[in-house]
Amino acid sequence: MGWGIRSFFKSLVILNREISPTVGMLYPRESETREVRSLDGLWNFVKSDPTNPTQGVRDKWFLDDLSRVQDTIPMPVPASYNDITTQNDLRDHVGTVWYDRKFFVPRSWANKQRVWLRFGSVHYEAFVYVNGEMAVRHEMGHLPFEAEITNLVKYGEENRITVMCDNALIQTTVPQGKITEVSRDDGVAIVQTYTFDFFNYAGIHRSVHLYTTPLTYIEEMEITTDLAKDNNVGFVYYKVKANGTAANEAVNNLYVRVQLRNKDGAIVANETSNSDLKGVLEVQKVLPWWPYLMHPDPGYLYQLEIFLHGENNELLDVYRQKVGIRTLSWNNTSFMINGRPVYFRGFGRHEDSDIRGKGLDLALMTRDFNLLKWIGANAYRTSHYPYSEESMQFADENGIMIIDECPSVDTENFKQELLDKHKSSMEQLIHRDRNHPSVVMWSIANEPRTNQLNAGSYFQYVANHTRELDPSRPVTAAIAVSSNDDKAAKFLDVISFNRYNGWYSNPGRLDMITKRVIDEATNWHKKHNKPVIMSEYGADTVEGLHLLPAYVWSEEYQTELFSRHFKAFDTLRKQPWFIGEFVWNFADFKTAQTVTRVGGNKKGVFTRNRQPKAVAHLLRKRYFALGREVDQCNFPEDLFTYIADVGPSRNAKHDDADL
What we know:
- By secondary structure, the protein is α+β, with helices and mostly antiparallel strands.
- The chain folds into three domains: 35-214, Galactose-binding domain-like (Jelly Rolls, Sandwich), CATH 2.60.120; 216-323, Immunoglobulins (Immunoglobulin-like); 340-631, Glycosidases (TIM Barrel), CATH 3.20.20.80.
- The chain is built from eleven helices and 32 strands.
- The strands form eight sheets. Strands 25-26-27-28-29-30-31-32 form an eight-stranded parallel β-barrel, surrounded by four helices. Strands 3-2-4-10-7-8 form a six-stranded antiparallel β-sheet, with no helix packed on it.
- β31, α10 (555-572) and β32 form a beta-alpha-beta unit.
- α7 runs parallel beside α8.
- Mean pLDDT is 94; it is low at 1-10 and 654-659.
């Protein structure tokens, strides 16, 4: 009995342990000293027996071509594997799958350079073998990982890469899930369950690259920026880390030559560092990075060029990185960029599409950003996991602000192992995205169970860890627990809350929305004296369903529900501490099969194939109206549809009150 009590209380104690830092992981880019090759395409694919997921490891499938040990099918990379075939046992598969493909490494790569293998993401856990040797293992979907494979590949010959991917989610993964055995007609089924409301797509979701670096190479760079003299002078602070033979043997002989080019290619600043490989560039008549609609030229980016030199001024490595020069600041009642208050108007989103699932799709990504700009949004949250690096680069270019969220969703059962992985997910995310000007806030969780025991200390550790890694951006989390029961919000810089008045709360009651939104937002601010964002609101809507009077699931109801929220937001906007409104969701998306989801979650303003519902046109008018009021932007010419030329009657008198 005494042992049981001690074990129980020991399980309640969580410690703030150190997390191993990410190393390297620069986005693969060609330069004078680097080559990049894509391994995207059709790979060979095998689904393991769900009741025997480790068979491939025990039988060492990685030692030979998969086609020699199992029947294979072609599988596109990048893509989720779930919706590619017509088989429901693959769509709903739980456990491991295997991929392999062949590739050549040119003989020229054997000459005084390193070879790297990099994955944009594999969900959820990956084991990677090159020519039968373990190259790297990585746990955490949606984030990149890499390994040096210089000594694993054969030069001028054919090579084989094998990947085992495991999609299983348990109580100590991020995100969490549960696996159970359930009897079925012909035996036992392995069933994956989870509480989050999106489909657990799996596979090699983002691009796979081979790339080279010199023996001594630029391993990492950290960029921060500042503005002065009424935003007329900019500063770019750089910190470079080198690795390799010369870096280890002759540290004092290394230096970097740094130059900054504007969009026209002209050099506007340059500097040569000392051996510490860090410094600052000063830019006169700087063009700051501004969000979309806050400036006629949003998303202005410079190109930073870093040249690593060694002994006798030998050029060792070259890497280029786009840089946006801007400042962020916040207090108890506002959030500012370049000294100007920001009012966020945007979306929660998903990386989700038919057939590809969560696989990187550049055509879809481009369409999404066109729709974001068409509708007048200036921001979105990467709900509920990190999005592709390509989408982050697109946000930089287009001036779309990002609330960057880690994969923690519906977090509960706050234990030590989960805390360590949660902190690791934030560390990997910040390491990957810290140089993006579009990233203006870190979100450490979505709808965590912050009323539970241990939630307070757990999120205090995660929030403080995030600030230690990057003090230049505020920390938030999207909270669904009431302000009276929550234990985490006091550790945040900005409070975001999710609430579905008129849908999950009082469905069908459009008269129970406006006051409730105002009251809840006000309560959050009164309790914590911090800026507040409504990070989710919305209603499921079946495309083409029209019912009058408005009725749940109809396009009329979604439109009316949005309008009632708009009234609340306009009341709240009179208080400076209310700083943003985010619709849930940008587009319809797939979920697990339930009787409350007809083909998935239908709360999108756009359909899953990215066509507007009726509410999109209403939301567009609102977002541009807010842009006109807050940021003095111009209306698009097609914002208002011509109706009629109705002038005043000849004898009538009119004044400004009629407008």
